[in-house]
Design goal:
This protein is α+β, with helices and mostly antiparallel strands. It has one domain. The protein has helices at about 5-40, 45-50, 80-95, and strands at about 55-60, 60-65, 70, 75-80. The strands form two sheets. A two-stranded antiparallel sheet has the order 1-4. It is flat and about 55 Å long. The protein starts with a helix and ends with a helix.
Amino acid sequence: MPPERELIGDSRRRNARRLVWTLVLGLFLGGLLTKLSELFLPESTAREFLTTSVNSSVGPLSIDLVAVALTLGPFEVTLNVLTLVGVGIVAFVARSWI
């Protein structure tokens, strides 16, 4: 295999890994921002706008083999404005540092 091809494959793997980590850390940061805004912002339209969320869930997924039984889920994602802000901050930091 030519060396250029190996570099392209490695670059794609690194980009996919960076994307996954950016999303995971951004979702955690957004969740933290949401909880902090629920605690410290007074009851207002701004707080309602920032903390209103949309939930999406999948599962549970059950796999029952003869020797092993496995249940995964349910998997739930909660998105709001602060979650998107968290993903944006992490993406900006990852792009500027890495």
